[in-house]
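Researcher: Batch entry, complex prediction.
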Amino acid sequence: MHHTTPWEYRYAHRTSRMGSSVIRELLKLTEQPDIISFGGGLPAPEVFPVKQFQEACNIVLNEQGAQALQYGTTEGYRPLREMIARHNARFSVEVSPDNIMITSGSQQALDFIGRLFINRGDYIVVESPTYLGALQAWNAYGAQYVSVPSDEHGMIVDELEKALRVGPKFIYILPNFQNPSGSTLSLERRKKLVELADKYGVPIVEDDPYGQLRYEGEHLPSVVQLDSQMRGPNGGTYTGNVIYLSTFSKLLAPGIRLAWVIAPPEVTRKLVMAKQAADLHTATFNQIVAYEVAKGGFLDEHVKVIRATYKERRDVMMETMEEVFPSEAHWAHPEGGMFLWGILPQGMDAAEVLKVAIEKKVAFVPGFAFHPNGGGENTMRLNFSYCQPDVIREGITRLGLTLKEMLRNNGK
Amino acid sequence: MHHTTPWEYRYAHRTSRMGSSVIRELLKLTEQPDIISFGGGLPAPEVFPVKQFQEACNIVLNEQGAQALQYGTTEGYRPLREMIARHNARFSVEVSPDNIMITSGSQQALDFIGRLFINRGDYIVVESPTYLGALQAWNAYGAQYVSVPSDEHGMIVDELEKALRVGPKFIYILPNFQNPSGSTLSLERRKKLVELADKYGVPIVEDDPYGQLRYEGEHLPSVVQLDSQMRGPNGGTYTGNVIYLSTFSKLLAPGIRLAWVIAPPEVTRKLVMAKQAADLHTATFNQIVAYEVAKGGFLDEHVKVIRATYKERRDVMMETMEEVFPSEAHWAHPEGGMFLWGILPQGMDAAEVLKVAIEKKVAFVPGFAFHPNGGGENTMRLNFSYCQPDVIREGITRLGLTLKEMLRNNGK
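Model: Structure tokens for the complex:
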């Protein structure tokens, strides 16, 4: 018997459902400096507003250092919550600070939603493919998944009704520039989604980290906005069907771990209790500094810089794929966000491709990882936000060569 | 039927075990500027090293802004983990960075311990009274508690053996200047605790937020140190019986939410998986800034300032109690930490006292809140770290008057 501690025999049942993820292993690869990684989901460090952040740190520590370094309230720094409420008003969603809780990244909101709502064995309706972080968060609570297929316009909502009839706890959807597929749910499907959810009494979790990162086409109303409109005036506090998540990770910086959740007030109160038990509150300092950076409207200007940077990188990636990828491969055209979805010929296994690609010092995430009920073996997720354009060109060229070689060898 | 959202009927079973805590309600009272509150557990803002923190923010953003604002690894910033390992070496505990994970406050470590180890109905051995935050964290996982009584020298370890025979998952103990009782576990009892835990194969969670805040007497070895010594040389990586928690909240500032957990490597790996699903990682920026503040040995000097400040406040509180409290009341003499434990005459209800005290604009936490299996109705927790000395004198005077009045009225 190998050496053990008594802890080893004491794990709770849910521990068996935790797994170290493919993405985590890939993030480790990205730490090797010689790998070109399209595997992570990192923002470009070139667009971090370091100077503005530094100014804000100095102002906050000069003017309210004692408050910024002290314990704070669990729901979050009130001026920040009020600012988020005003931001939503611009998109015609009437929410009050009572609808809003600050979280340590959207991952934490996903965890709390699992904690509040998922009994072991409960079904959650997800897009196929869907966001891996949500699956990781909810697997620990024993969730099962009903996958609804999606195409370039997002979830195929005509297939949703069947899924709603199995009695799921909620629907999870990323309507804008989805992670991993890059797809955007069409306006028609958004409306149908809101109606069907209302018809079956099944609520919706809308995860929207990239909504403002649109590089072409028109902004579409969020699902929470459509739900709110359907219900009519609400007296300033949202009491509808949707829990909405968004984040400062893509607009400001992920390293400060700052996001928010919008929910009906009764749910927000429960979220606050969950957060109190989980980590008391999100760092006061980070919240006040983010408020200081954002309060004068800086993010409205800054997001234009991010959009220009990522649009260029997306375009370079697609152009290079056009040049170097084998004609058997296809890919979607994302209108925003950070990810491009590649589709290899049927029967080709992206996990096998990854093994060869890593030898050529280029990485991505095989698409099967995003399918909770299997499938997607011939798909791949490519991040275009992190690497600089010339690096993208080099990495995609290596990947194109890898694919062509493998297809040639298979053909033999 | 009142207006509801579909969420209201969808809460998971564990949600019923979440409650908004007494402490939380009391923290709300402390937000009223005219209340003198001994209820919270706040550090003195006067000792926050605002200047050092500001300098560190500037250095970090100038020199490694891109890294500090980017996503980081789940286990935490390696130089910070290495620094914590070196710090432990000074106290003769051989730990490697593989033993250490950074958490968003110790509350998060408590939550993860619950997530990893507690099946619904499992028993945890706790001191009576014990830390409320741990109960809140573990109630959500369906824990039950075996209370072992304690006195001014901490848990009465002679009573522990009986508790270990019920088959508990682990023992939870705060050996230094316990929250809430202020008691310190004697060296003899620490040794006995380590031996008994080893004899029964029941592991220990040692929660040590205040260990360095000692105002008199000799530093005692931590439980993890004694366990480590008992096992002998370990090759630089701890593989013993104890999970050890500590925090920067009391030494640096709580508003940055930065703490650490030391565990056998196999447990640390599972903690990392839990954290990955829960919030990906603790804010990179906060970790690098804390490292920058601490790396040159600043905290060794700074802790002397904190000790001097809190010792004065403790002494003022005890002196004033001596003057104004009725002779029927007693209190313990804490050698460190942030809390003083008051004992009222048997039959007097501290919750009733609180109601009257709040009218007189002074607050504390009734001791029953810290007893998971009942008891302690005549006890109260008084925080002495937050209020300045003259405020402590005024608040304790009001409280003394309240107690005398109530005793007089009861006597009628």
